[in-house]
Amino acid sequence: MDILLTSFLTAFAFIILLFKMGIGKFLRFSWQTDVIVSGILTFLFFGTFIGMLTGIIAGIIISLFLSIAKAISNTNKK
Fold this sequence. Notes:
It is a single chain. This protein has helices at about 1-20, 25-30, 30-45, 50-75. The radius of gyration is 13 Å and the shape is elongated. The termini are far apart. By secondary structure, it is an all-alpha fold.
């Protein structure tokens, strides 16, 4: 349970940063953003199994968020 909470809070913090930097830029390059964020999270949490699991789950949450946000963005443009 602690891993999921930590992962959610980590993903939430990254999503807030993406909004502050302009989410539109990141939606255009969503797969590149996924790779970079996952790499950063892996680097930040490297060292323990729990840390790596937290980074992986947070990366998945961010990836899902970007996919949903891109789909919503594309729907609004039509």
